Amino acid sequence: MKLRLLAVGQKMPAWVEQGFNEYSKRLPNDCALELVEIAPGQRSKSSSVEKAMRQEADALRKAIRPQDHVVTLEVLGKPWTTPQLAQQLENWRMQGGDVAILIGGPDGMSSDILALARQRWSLSNLTLPHPLVRVVVAEQLYRAWSILQGHPYHK
User: What keywords are assigned to this protein (predicted)?
Assistant: First the structure.
């Protein structure tokens, strides 16, 4: 199984890349985590938010593969405890396919992208900065994997 984090946004600060890379490199090949950066839609005073979101949706749709189990990150999604995430990770592994976890742009995700989701996951009721979400997701996936392996990291 491959985990793919499809994240709208590019040119992240070095600390984001370092944090994401630190946790993704800890995962084994049979649970590899890959980051796919999606160009944000163009936003300006003369263009609409909807147009930018459509551009992001088009790019996300192209990055999602037909066999991907799509999970969207959204405030209104289901909050999982770390042990529940570990169970989700095990379920995804048992399904045998790859998982695409989607982080939308600054205005969220369009309804057509949300409709592709098999699961909707909420990290928090708080609004988190998108760069930080990348690091949190990578760390939590590593933590979930460590639980499944009986690794002491989770303690």
Answer: Cytoplasm, Methyltransferase, rRNA processing, S-adenosyl-L-methionine, Transferase
